[in-house]
Amino acid sequence: MSAIPITSAAGPRGGVLRRFASQEALLAVAVIGLAVIVGFVNPRFLAYRNLADILLGNAYIAIAAIGMSMVIVSGNIDISVGALIGVLATVSGSLAVAGAPTAVTWLAPLVLGVAVMAAQGVVVAYLRIPAIVVTLGMLSILKGGLISVTGGKWITDLPQSFHLADLNVLGVPMPVVIMVAATVLAALRMRYSPSGRAVYATGGNAEAARLCGVNPQRTVVMVFAIHGLFAGLATLVYATQLRVIQSTTPSGLELTIITASVVGGVSILGGVGTVVGSTLAAILIAEITSALVFINVSPYWTDALRGGLILVTVIADILRRQRRAARGWKK
Amino acid sequence: MITKYLMTTAAAAFALSVWGAGANAASKWDGGDDLPTSPLECGTGAAAATAPVKYDGGQPTNPPNNAGKEITIVDVPKLIGIGYFNATSKGIQDAAKELGNVKAKTDGPTEAKIDEQIKFIDNYITSGVDGILFAANDPVAIAPVLKKALSKGIHVVGYDANSTPDAREWFVNQAQFNGIGKAMIDSMAKESGEDASFAIVTSTFTTPNQARWIAEMQAYAAKCHPKLQWLETVEAQEDNNLSFNQATTLINKYGDKLKGLFGMTSVATPASAEAVSKAGLCGKVAIVGLATPNAMKPYVHNDCVKSVVLWNPIDLGYAATYVLRAAVDGKLKPGDASVEGGKLGKLNVINGSEVLLGPPFIFTKDNIDKFDF
Amino acid sequence: MSIATDTAARGAPWWLKRHETLLAIILILALIGLGAFNNRFLTVDNLLNQGRLMTEIGLIALPMTFIIITGGIDLSVGATVGLSAVMLGYSWKTFGFPMPLAIVFALFIGGLAGFVNGFVITRIKVPPLIMTIATLALYRGLAEGVSQAHSVRGYPEWFYVLGQGDIFGVPTQLLILIVLIVIAGVALDRTTFGRALYAIGSNETAARFSALNVDRTKLIIYTLSGLASGLAAVVLVSRVTTTRMDMGMGYELDVIAAVVLGGTSIFGGSGTIWGTVIGLVMIQLLKNGLALTGVKGDATIVVIGVALILSVLIASSLQRRRE
User: Fold this and answer.
1) Is B206 in contact with B31 (CB distance < 8 Å)?
2) Which CATH architecture is the domain B71-174+313-358 placed in?
3) Which residue in A121, B147, B226, B312 has its CB near the most CB atoms, within 10 A?
4) B and C: number of Cβ contacts within 8 A
5) Which member of B110, B111, B253 has the closest CB to residue A44?
6) Contact assessment for residue B328 and residue B153, using Cβ atoms and an 8 Å cutoff
7) The pLDDT of residue B3
8) pTM of the model
9) What is A17-325's CATH topology?
């Protein structure tokens, strides 16, 4: 269905240098470059406090984008993740208020996230309903279900022990630790483990993958399950940062996560993209949001600018891919 | 390729910052809708008595005579699922129970979208309710469907967020816009000083109430606290995390210059308090805002927040129900100057067709624990 | 994906086995059921009113069907509605355009927005999902920037006939929708343009080699999508008498739900306008019927979600049994 040649980032033969001339490199440069530029206009942007806050406040998006990237690489999509995070946060918070042991309140969103997403994966893989339909339906079910069950009541009064995001590991705040660890582990798995490469194969060409001994259905279910795990992790960071848990699903969250994956270089055609890219993209998007405030852009135009920057990034990425494909794989 | 990309982005960012800084300098504190403001007198003087205004509400066409009979009403707030409207809903249920002849239900969209709200109201018109209570997402857009309700003989009373006057019989106003403006600015001046610089975290620039409050705050500050300096206003939707991030960004951007934060919604205020608390600036940055008590209890208890301005939303829903019942029973007619508000006593009619709940309620360390919403 | 199976097997009532027929049967059963529960549901008044309320989504669902048949998607339609609405008000109030010109301008902006989508998708080859996610953010942001969060109200009275008036007892916008449904349905079914859409969706490479101007066709459908969004915006503004920059938020999901429910495969290559219409009507009437029966909003969207998955499940399993 596409005219773009599919390049696989999964092969180890690509060479380290080739991988640097890639979306990840572009994003890393953009993150640093933007910080420098804004630092000129308002040096306070470069204060450690501010940079740390940008990371901390948005780590959950990067974590969720990891799972989303995998789903997209496998050739599917998920628009229910925002609603799921809302539900998981409410479940976790309710358990905490009800006095459940802290470990349980932290494990519950992980387990539940895996369960819900894996169920969707089964429907997509074995019942062959397109992912966009299943997740669209699930979005409604989760959103409505959440309000029905909670009656819209917020959760306040959370016990202090609940707040995972406040902890530090060797001085590094937990959200950053989880974000980096998750990214590294996921990236390694996608690149070097057979089940990870199976995801790329399934996304690129399911039939060819099957002929190579990959089980596409099982791969898809697994990908969704892992996506659920990351959604649960994201929920942990998201819900434990503040003292209040809203009982509504954060609006527009799934779109932000998908944008982070897409800007991160994950191709919606499946088969291409890395999770490092999506993490960098999530950081970049958060940075842009903060930067627009710092450089005094009129608040009415911040959304337009962010959208424009995303558009530019996306077009640049596609053009770059085409140029690379046209050049061929000559060493 | 990469360099070209970077250069264009750099140029764009620079150009924008120059233009943006200029554009921001002269702007108002918010979007607003260019309606006139009417700031109150400075100091603690009571609001000057306003001359009585002719009734300007809409009336239902040939409503059935339900005086004393049981009626079914529906409450369609801006959205369901936030503490504030849970509280108003509770007030409505309390009043319904007390009155004994009112069956009330709360139903509404899960996001503050006017189009959805219109469809909800439309469905309830078709299903034949006797009365509608509403809090509008947009005053003008909601008017056609409310007028349709009136034309079918359904009684329509608004609360919290008004529609155009001719689209409803009565509007229960929790507090006048200029009263809120005064309360907020006076609190900020008291807590952070007369020449403090502050920023505002609001939901969106198109939320009508918030826009009006900010406009009134601006007018009142210009009149009575001219040395207060406004830095900027940011949007944060009704999202907790986004409000937190925006408040944190403001704190980082202005550093010591920021002496106060206004939270304009029940989501923005606790999130701003959390941001100040996380930054370790409790006591150095004042937080003044509108919020429901439960979310603010931790911050009020540790003295991060001195006072929370609100009215009692439970009372608001309660009063709205009583007003609707009175309108149905014919006890509240156009031109009346007051109405019986159950346990709230007599409520005054102002501005033609508005029923005033009373002065804003201030939650402080001493009284906040008495409330659970 | 099966132009072949559509035209083959004309023996036994082929129309009976089609997804659309099944859906229509479910729809009729649902109508009867809901009507039994509630005596205000099946009144002409209510049904016409529902027709009025579903027009905005319906207008956009028509070109969206075309787009999804070609295997693409357009998530920016909601934002385009907001942008067009803002431009309608802005051009009328700030530029001082006479109202008819402002309406044309709003349509033009919608079409332009769609054209930009189509252009980048066909020339620069950005995948539709990605492009329209980006323009979703951009157009909504432009709406906010241009409007500066102001609403524009106070339009001339005649303008409101479009959104609130009736012609021969039928809501004005519904008439427009019906006309466009017929045109779209005929275009899809009987013209080479329509057949080209199916071809592109089934196998784009083959379509290119068959001397079909794939790029131009795609450009057309994305522009049409923008135009439809612009028209929906005009209708919406007329219905609610004001403009807001957040108009149309969430429309994209409602539109896609209607199209997919109607049997159009998200992978491309199959689907009909009639299916989309049935999907559209079904969702609208389901929401309405449930509300009238006293089901609250949050439970209603759960039901819609379940219904969406179930009906696609049933339809797809039946289709597979047929193959």
Assistant:
1) yes
2) 3-Layer(aba) Sandwich (3.40)
3) A121
4) 82
5) B253
6) no
7) 52
8) 0.86
9) ABC transporter involved in vitamin B12 uptake, BtuC (1.10.3470)
